[in-house]
Design brief:
Elements: H1 2-44, H2 49-60, E1 64-70, E2 73-81, H3 85-89, E3 93-101
Antiparallel strand pairs: 1-2, 2-3
Helix pairs in contact: 1-2
């Protein structure tokens, strides 16, 4: 009984850690998506790229930020290395994109 328990507990803890890391990565993805939308709205209102970048940094910290214009839309693409669990160990990069109608309020 003790030997089986000693074998099963590390495996269960490993699976649990992977699941919790996955939940944390999904949370990071949601925060990046929200920050990308905030940055796009800021640019669409006519703010400079520096102001939009500062808003994004206030929300999620240091991330890679790229802006693009698609017709009437201003889009912001953010990317960041995964900060949690096994995803960070494997070098997973999380990306998000948000767009807003230029000149909108």
């Amino acid at each position: 009984m003790t030997a089986e328990f000693a074998v099963v507990v590390p495996a269960v803890l490993l699976v649990l850690a992977c699941c919790l890391g996955g939940v944390q990565v999904v949370g990071q993805q949601v925060r990046l998506t929200d920050a990308a939308a905030d940055g796009a709205r800021s640019l669409a209102r006519g703010d400079s790229a520096g102001v939009a970048a500062n808003r994004v940094r206030e929300s999620v910290g240091a991330v890679g930020m790229a802006t693009e214009q698609h017709g009437e839309f201003v889009c912001v693409r953010l990317s960041s290395a995964a900060a949690f669990g096994p995803a960070a160990a494997f070098g997973l990069t999380i990306a998000a994109r948000g767009c807003a109608l230029a000149g909108g309020l």
